[in-house]
What we know:
The complex is a heterodimer. By secondary structure, chain A is an alpha+beta fold. In chain A, about 35% of the residues lie in helices and about 30% in strands. Chain A folds into two domains: about 50-125, Immunoglobulins (Immunoglobulin-like), CATH 2.60.40.10; about 135-255, CATH 3.30.1330.60. A five-stranded mixed sheet of chain A has the order 2-8-7-4-5, with no helix packed on it. Chain B has three domains: about 1-45, no CATH class; about 45-175, 3-Layer(aba) Sandwich (Rossmann fold); about 190-455, TolB, C-terminal domain (Neuraminidase, 6 Propeller). The interface of A and B includes residues 195, 199, 200, 201 and 226 of A.
Amino acid sequence: MSAMQIKFRKALVLASVLVAIGAVTGCHKKASGINPNSLGPAPAAPAAAPTATITADPLAIDLGQSVVLNWRTENATVVTIDGIGEVNANGTQTVSPSNSTNFHLTAKGDGGTTEANVRVTVRVPVAPAAPPPTETDMGSEAAFHQNVQDVFFDYDSYDLRPDAAAATAQAAAYLTAHPAIKVVIGGYCDDRGSAEYNLALGENRANAARTALVSAGVPASRLRVISYGKEKQFCTEENESCWQQNRRAQFSLDR
Amino acid sequence: MFSPTRTSPTRYEKLCGLAALLCLVFSAWSLQAQDTFKTETSSGVSNIRIAVADFKPLSGDPQTADLKRTFDATLFSDLANAGIFDVVSKSLLPQSTPGAPGEISLQQWSVAPASASMVAFGAFSVQGGKIVCNGFLFDAKNLQYPQVLAKQYSDEATDDASRQIAHRFADEIIFRLSGGSQGIAETKIYYVKIAGADKEIWEMDYDGANQHAITHLGTVSLSPRISPDNSRLAFSSLGRDGFQIRMYSLLLGRMVNFQSVGGTNLSPAWAPNGKDLAYSSSRSGDPEIWIADANGSVARRVTSFRGPDVSPVFNPRTGAQIAWISGRTGLPQLYIMDTDGSAVQRMTDGGYATSPSWSPNGQFVAFAWDRKYGPGAPGGQDIYVMEIATKRWIQLTHDGGRCDFPSWSPDGRHIVYANTADGTAAHMKVWTMLADGTQKRALTGIGADMPNWSWK
């Protein structure tokens, strides 16, 4: 044998080894002959792949309402829905999810596995507390009291004085600029006179302040009125300056 | 009505009506002539002089002495408080303690110094955990047939029971000797107890004994009003949305439903039929008088005028009229109207009038009035009684500090009210007096306000 021939043989062996390696590694499934289908005794023809569909009616609900899931599968032996478990091949199920949910159906059959999805949207009402009112929405407590100042009244009167009209105008401007703010208007009286009459008078005072704010464009739904009469005093001295302190409509943040 | 006689009821009523009218007229005249005066309602008829003997103890039970002491003291003060008796001082009584009709020698009691026209006496014992009490009322001037009244009582051997027995016996005596007027010794007074920042509703006997809490709501509760049948208590309570009418069942011992509405809701008042409740409500913006049923439903508005309308009270005789306080012309004044809102009449001519209470016979309204009220004026809020037919009034309290919330006793002879000597709200006490302004005495310590006398 010539050197040329030896070289050729070496190359041929190398090539056949490479082919053999490639056959074993690269095309393992087809070449290996361990296909489970071919091991099984019965199936002469390859099984059909399963089909699956799932629908939900309605697709969007409010929290607390229910929705009907409806699914159809073919050629499946095991059908499962995530979160529900194993179910019949065809069926319906009423569910009431508390959050928006993907209902994921898996149909496994001899012909393989098929999946189907449906998404149910749950509209959760936005609770007032859910987005916590931030400092920027409400403004600071200090800024509120600087801009929304209590209004004071004359003795046995619930008419707004000129100084009170100016105060409510400023308050209305601030409240218009901060639409997230809700306000409690408390009506107060000095401790002279009768408790019952003063509660009614305090109601009239708080209502006078409320009316002024509503006239200036503040929505009435943001304002709440409570009369305290002479039941909650700011001071207890028996003189005009203290009595004046107590004859007021007081604004505070309604949280 | 203030002055009892022993004539027949019809004649008695005529006499009393005349006497009351006369004294109102005279007092109104004399008040305008002088700053202070005292009304005279006895009008010449002297009170019956009655001797109240200590009862005779008839058992050796160790509880007897204590319970009998309570009984004796209660019977004595009930008769002294009634306003129709001149009760003989205990130091003037004979030494004997008769326990039965055979043991009394009436001459001993009718001669000086006792000089009694009537004698109340009897026996008191405790047997097997029960009080047994025999009470007698004898006419000391009628030696042949002296017995007016003989009663036997039996109850649990407790301090409260011996007080109640004394109240019942006193009411019997008052009924016989007042010309048919029901006694008030078994009535109750509801009031507001001030406890720090909170105010709760309390109950006590008419004489100030047995004070105890009804509500424990931990907030400010005001204006208790007892229903005519003593079953329910309406009042006003501060909640998150302000003052609302609340209802407490004294039979169930708990709060019961009263429909909540918007606005400030105040000062409930029972109609004499026990079914309707008038109160002040600002659900429509301005405080007006509304009438609803006892659950707060089927409410209808009665007044319609800008300004505070508050403190309604029904005419307890007819149920067809309401007296109330309105600030429609400025300072609060006393008004009267029919329950359908018609026939509005202003009763006071000025000053600052509050807290009306209609007398049981329908003739008078008691109220608190500061006639010289104004900025800087010295406070002088006193209790007044006005005769509705004539608008004439008499003043019952003088220079004793601020007075408010008069409430008539069911017999129309007494008025309970709140007074603070130094003007401080926290120092309010509940007082009682005869309806002519005499015999004033405090029933509570400080921190008691807004009394309301039960209907029976």
